[in-house]
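Not sure how to ask, but would you mind making up any protein sequence you like and the tokens describing how it folds?
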Amino acid sequence: MSQSFRINTNVGALRAYNALAKLNQQSQTAQLRLASQKRINNVADDTSGFNVGKSLDSKVTIMQSAQRNVGSAQDMLATAESQLISVKDMITQIRGKIADASNPTADKSAIAKDIQAIADELASAFGSTKFNETSLLQSVANGAGAGFTFQTGVTSSDSININYGNVSGDELVGTTATTAFTSNVSGLSSDVASALDALKGVDADGIASLDVDAFDDAVDASLGAIGNYSQRLNAKQDFLSSAILNSQSAYSRLFDADVALESLNATKAQIGSQAASAMFSQLNFAPQQVLQLFG
């Protein structure tokens, strides 16, 4: 009872003030989260959660870049594949021409010119096939013979080296120098360059001696390698899509506000603040009862 008559320090009012300040802070926190839609608005809100979330966000950004790299690699391979299929079809046409020339009544000179025309188109295919100005069927700077390296994960070591031009035993590209006939094409393997030379310089008497088997095998090997790389890239694409989704989900759980919960917290704090304000007012005037002692 004696404490009720101490007027120099209104302990009860101070306690009510502290409770009111705490409720106001809770209300402001909930309202800020509702306004920003974020559970963590500064590091102090959740230090460990902030660090984990920012790490996840960084990884998501890198994985999205890696995902774009995979897409570019797939498009590049699709371009090379399309042209190599055309090359394969042209080799088949040449085989047909060679078979036609075995007919004693055939015009071999005309057939030779047909083969030369197809060989010109083959040379054009090797020289002009590019993806974003990068040669795909020649071993030149940044070309197929040097291989292509794409980062496909979070770290630079998580990458894939695509080199479909140098399949062991059946090389499509190489370091063969330009020759008299293939003056517009360089960086081909010896088998391909020799075959193109023979095709572009063939005459009526030389058709029967043409051999495109090694050339054809090199194209088949490259197409097979492209198929294998495409399968690997598809698998990486699926993994990255799943990893990005899971990381974004974890980031959202840490940083995004639960709107329903924060709305509840804001309402609760506002009601509590009103009640605390009323009690603070009453406690602030409570010492006035001591004036009755001076009646």
Summary: The longest strand covers residues 148-151.
